């Protein structure tokens, strides 16, 4: 691939940023935003940002009136340095994911100046608490559309109450791993953020069915919900979603051991737009669930059944109706045999990724058939399948990424 002159210049600048950053011409002439974005990406990839050059580069971003800023790969700058982001008042999209050095003071400083922000990504900023969440609500209010707080452990119901009261336009909220979160916080969100379309509360282990019920009743535009590893979530929550959220497209209930075939029947029967369903690691999911998936979710694209150990060929036969499926994961479904793989191969030609790892009753003949019948297949995981080196090489010869031991 031949690089353009612009790409070459960007690479050279990024590699030698400390040499060029203080040149008088850098500060004198505003850079076009698209060039600043290219520089930003390249410098981060090369891990060249530091305490001295980052504030100067943020000045460049400010003069370019940048709308979107992603500093998620900057790990070697102090909290105070990030406060220079406040100079870029044109920002509508800010990504500071995985910058654990960032504090409440810095976030508050930024949102007080950058009041046009619509998307704020702070996942992994684990020093943040309700104080900065309150300031996000206060200064961004109705402009805020997307808020990502995954792994912000100290966020509680109080912070979410302020979001609910002041941010009615919020449609995307990620609270995964916010381990102090309770039902009250989610109830506040349901009352104030009725435009919500995506909610992630995975690993919020205090969350119960009542929280999901409130969301389902009041956030009828919901398209995506992730509650994996929320151990109290059961078929009751599935019924609430089924009755009130007909727009649902993505549901993740992996590691929710109280969700059974009954819940999947309720969900699939009324949420026919579902195209992503993750049921992984659930010993109470059986072939009965696959019967309902085949009957009601004919347009499903991604189905994760990893370690659903009661799934067998009998259930897999119902997936022949899912002809648009692109991703299928049956890793650890030990009852599945060649018969099921041959059926899937014949009926699901759109498959892009398949994981049949540790399905020890599957052999080379059916795997080869899968590769031959699915011309779009890009990735195949076969960990723990008894294949010879020659057989693995034959699979790789089909230009497929083969993952194996």
Summary keywords:
405 residues; alpha/beta; Leucine-rich repeat, LRR (right-handed beta-alpha superhelix); 14-stranded parallel sheet; globular
Topology:
Blueprint: H1 5-15, H2 17-20, H3 24-28, H4 33-45, H5 53-63, E1 68-70, E2 93-95, H6 104-113, E3 119-121, H7 130-140, E4 146-148, H8 157-166, E5 172-174, H9 183-192, E6 198-200, H10 209-218, E7 224-226, H11 235-244, E8 250-252, H12 261-270, E9 276-278, H13 287-296, E10 302-304, H14 313-316, E11 327-329, H15 338-347, E12 353-355, H16 364-373, E13 379-381, H17 389-396, E14 401-403
Parallel strand pairs: 1-2, 2-3, 3-4, 4-5, 5-6, 6-7, 7-8, 8-9, 9-10, 10-11, 11-12, 12-13, 13-14
Can you tell me about this structure?
With 405 residues, this protein is of the alpha/beta class. Among the domains are: 1-66, no CATH class; 287-405, Leucine-rich repeat, LRR (right-handed beta-alpha superhelix) (Alpha-Beta Horseshoe). It has 17 helices and 14 strands. Strands 1-2-3-4-5-6-7-8-9-10-11-12-13-14 form a 14-stranded parallel β-sheet. Strand 2 (93-95), helix 6 (104-113) and strand 3 form a beta-alpha-beta unit. The radius of gyration is 24 Å and the shape is globular.
Précis, in short:
It is built from 17 helices and 14 strands. With 405 residues, it is an alpha/beta fold.
Shape: globular
CATH-derived architecture of the domain at 287-405: Alpha-Beta Horseshoe
Give the helix/strand class.
alpha/beta
Total number of strands: 14
Radius of gyration: 24 Å
Number of helices: 17
Mean pLDDT: 94
Uncertain ranges: none
Described by strand count, sense and barrel closure, the largest sheet is: 14 strands, parallel
What's the CATH topology label of the domain at 287-405? Leucine-rich repeat, LRR (right-handed beta-alpha superhelix)
CATH superfamily of the domain at 287-405: Ribonuclease Inhibitor
**Percentage of residues assigned to helices:** 25-40%
């Amino acid at each position: 691939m031949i690089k353009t002159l612009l790409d070459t210049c960007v690479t050279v600048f990024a590699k030698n940023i400390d040499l060029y950053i203080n040149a008088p011409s850098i500060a004198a002439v505003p850079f076009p935003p698209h060039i600043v974005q290219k520089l930003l990406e390249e410098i981060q990839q090369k891990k060249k940002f530091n305490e001295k050059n980052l504030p100067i580069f943020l000045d460049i971003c400010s003069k370019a009136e940048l709308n979107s800023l992603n500093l998620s790969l900057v790990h070697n700058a102090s909290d105070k340095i990030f406060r220079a982001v406040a100079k870029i008042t044109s920002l509508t999209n800010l990504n500071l994911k995985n910058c654990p050095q960032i504090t409440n003071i810095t976030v508050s400083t930024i949102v007080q100046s950058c009041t046009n922000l619509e998307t704020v990504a702070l996942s992994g900023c684990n020093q943040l608490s309700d104080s900065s969440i309150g300031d996000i609500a206060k200064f961004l209010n109705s402009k805020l559309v997307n808020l990502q707080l995954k792994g912000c452990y100290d966020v509680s119901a109080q912070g979410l109450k302020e979001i609910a009261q002041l941010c009615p336009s919020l449609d995307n909220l990620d609270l995964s791993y916010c381990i102090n979160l309770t039902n009250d916080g989610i109830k506040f969100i349901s009352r104030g953020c009725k435009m919500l379309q995506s909610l992630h509360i995975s690993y919020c282990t205090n969350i119960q069915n009542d929280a999901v019920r409130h969301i389902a009743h009041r956030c009828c535009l919901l398209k995506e919900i992730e509650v994996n590893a929320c151990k109290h979530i059961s078929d009751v929550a599935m019924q609430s979603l089924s009755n009130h959220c007909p727009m649902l497209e993505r549901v993740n209930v992996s590691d929710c051991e109280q969700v059974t075939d009954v819940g999947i029947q309720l969900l699939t029967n009324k949420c026919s737009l579902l195209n992503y369903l993750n049921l992984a690691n659930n010993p109470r999911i059986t072939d009965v669930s696959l019967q309902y998936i085949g009957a009601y979710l004919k347009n499903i694209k991604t189905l994760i059944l990893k370690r659903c150990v009661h799934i067998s060929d009998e259930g897999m036969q119902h997936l022949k109706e899912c002809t648009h499926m692109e991703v299928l994961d049956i890793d650890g479904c030990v009852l599945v045999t060649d018969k099921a793989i041959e059926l899937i191969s014949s009926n699901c030609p759109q498959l892009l990724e398949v994981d049949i790892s540790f399905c020890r009753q599957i052999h080379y003949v059916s795997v080869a058939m899968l590769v031959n019948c699915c011309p779009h297949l890009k990735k195949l995981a076969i960990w723990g399948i008894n294949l010879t080196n020659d057989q693995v090489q034959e699979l790789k010869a089909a230009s497929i990424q083969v993952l194996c031991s």
